[in-house]
Amino acid sequence: MTQTEALSSSAQGVSWDLTDLYKGIDDPAISRDLETALARAKTFEAGYRGRINVPGGPPPDFLATALAGMETLSELMDRPLIYASLVHAAKCDDPRHGAILSRTREARTAINKHLIFFDLEWVQLDETPARRLIRDPALEKYRHYLEHKRAWRPHFLTEPEEKILDEKAVTGRAAFVRLFDETVASIQFPFEADGRIDNLPLQQVNAKLYDPDRNIRKSAAQALTTGLKNNARLLTYVFNTVVLDHKSDYELKNFPNPMAPRHLDNEISDAIVEALMTATEQYHSSVERYYRLKARLLHLDVLYDYDRYALLFADMPICDWPTARRIVTQSYEAFSPEAAAVVRQFFEKSWIDTELRPGKRGGAFSSSAVPSVHPYILMNYTDKLRDVMTLAHELGHGLHQYLSRSVGYLQCHTPLTTAEMASVFGEMLAFQGLMKAYTDPRIQLGLLCSKIEDSFATVFRQVVLTRFEQSLHRARRERGELTTEQINDLWLTANRPMHKDSVKLTNDYGWWWLYIGHFIHVPFYCYAYAFGEILVLALFQKYKEEGSRFVPRYLQLLAAGGSDRPDALLSKLDVDVTDPVFWKLGLNLLDDMVTQAEDLAEKL
Ligand SMILES: [Zn+2]
């Protein structure tokens, strides 16, 4: 394929109009906003420094005025940088875009320097006045912001101690993280096909695990194992070090267990996470049934680990942009005309950039921008059915961000656990729309299988990864430095219950934990994916049961943004996330999808 052929799809010409933020990269308003923000930040500092952390606390009205000022100021100082990031993402190879990105970023840092004192003083304020202020009606609007900022307070060490930890982390933890990244990125995986060996990077070898040809998949699996084995000594040492470093950190900071710091970040409790994981593990039979079906569809007697991702149908139809737009809009319309009205604006007012263009960032995202404007979506539409789901996903984010503008800039952002709520819900809506639009059972089965496999990857696999991580941290604590083989055992032990006999995990598979960056970058990150996905499946099941009664409450939930803890916001939908029964709603829906796939397979 030539460059121009590769960069053309039915979405050519669909680009966003960023003029609601600024008229262009030379708009004098950009510099003006940055100058105004800097001047206001200096005034803010002069007016409030030393007056928040005072004996007995500041008067409530005084603090409320400060917060309101901080909120408008934050928007003003972020707006140029957000604009520059969007311009840059749309065309990274224009040097002027790189330049405006660094200019606005540096300016923002310089402004923010005058504001850092504010949160610090609030966190340092004594517990009694802080509690009283959090409950004060004058501060109702900022209650959660104030509360959440203080959540880390019991885990702060003294200022000199924090400073030393910070400084030594650069040559400690951070150095090992970088060593890991650079090592994995430089591994040459010796992929053998037709008697020839190609040395491939990780991404390319992984992509071959989806190939319809089993020999290619098998070769890819062997290449992956060999490449990892060749680097196992170094990578194992990095794992041992990072896990031990995590232990020093959480113990020094008075956390009860290795997962606790992550829970605090995610605004979630140990009990909720355990309820979610245990409920998930009770549904391993859905995984088994699905892989037995997949083995039948692939005409294989035994499904090995390297067969799991095999593409089932290589001949799925293409879907052009106008069709995608129609299917997605109609799916939202059927759910809620109010939601559809928001979604339509993205198309009609050019808030979405979806054409393929040289220098454009890959992937897709929805930027909330600032509440006084509106979100913007970037994606790369390639006419595949999968892109329709991506469009619905990003529009879900867009809808969430659009509605939550009402709670203001300081509280509109959600924690990781609920960040994917509206996006995955939007995917479910579009999925239903696609199943209506394509009635051929073969296409329906293709759609359904890819939806099931995506959900498995975000639900069951992430729980397995978390269980592995728990056992790794436990073993490192109890047994000291671990060998590669010991960790291989932990990995296989964590993986086996998910597949039982439906997939044969080879001993080679034992090495495949060595390249997973989540374990190194952000310990215990993975369960949040499972949380988000099952939450949505459960909410979708509730929608199916409650019908139109569900819709306004769901939209209110989105509009609440990050203005409270996820469990508190969800309780308004009569959802109790500590109750395993709630999680089973979602897991049942996934199980039903497997049954539906089995039924469709009968019709082929
Ligand atoms: Zn997303």
Neighbour order of strands in the largest sheet = 3-5-4
Q: How many strands?
A: 5
Bound molecules: zinc ion
Number of discrete helical segments: 28
Q: What is the end-to-end distance?
A: 34 Å
Into which percentage range does the β-strand content fall?
under 5%
What structural class do you assign from the helix and strand content?
mainly alpha
What overall geometry do the principal axes of the alpha carbons give? globular
Task: Please give the share of residues in helix.
Answer: 55-70%
Which residue ranges are poorly predicted, with pLDDT under 50 across at least 5 consecutive positions? Answer: 1-5
Q: Radius of gyration, Cα only, in angstroms? A: 25 Å
Average pLDDT rating: 94
| Main beta-sheet strand count, sense and barrel state | 3 strands, mixed
Secondary structure elements and pairings:
Elements: H1 3-6, H2 28-48, H3 60-90, H4 95-112, H5 116-124, H6 127-135, H7 143-149, H8 159-171, H9 173-186, E1 189-193, E2 196-200, H10 202-208, H11 214-230, H12 232-252, H13 260-266, H14 270-281, H15 284-297, H16 321-335, H17 337-348, E3 352-353, E4 365-367, E5 376-378, H18 385-403, H19 416-419, H20 421-437, H21 441-458, H22 460-479, H23 484-499, H24 518-521, H25 527-546, H26 550-559, H27 566-571, H28 580-603
Parallel strand pairs: 3-5
Antiparallel strand pairs: 1-2, 4-5
This protein binds zinc ion.
